[in-house]
Amino acid sequence: MHKAVWFIVLLVSLVRAQNLLDTKQHIPNQPKPVMPSPVLSVPFKTWSSVLIPGLGQALNHKYWKIPILYGGFIGLGNTYQKYQDRYQVYKSQLQAEYDDDPNTQNTSGLSKDALMYEKNRARYLRDYCAAGIGLLYLINIIDAHVDAHLFTYDVSDDLSFRPVLPNGMPGLCITFKP
Question: Which pTM was predicted?
Answer without folding.
Answer: 0.64
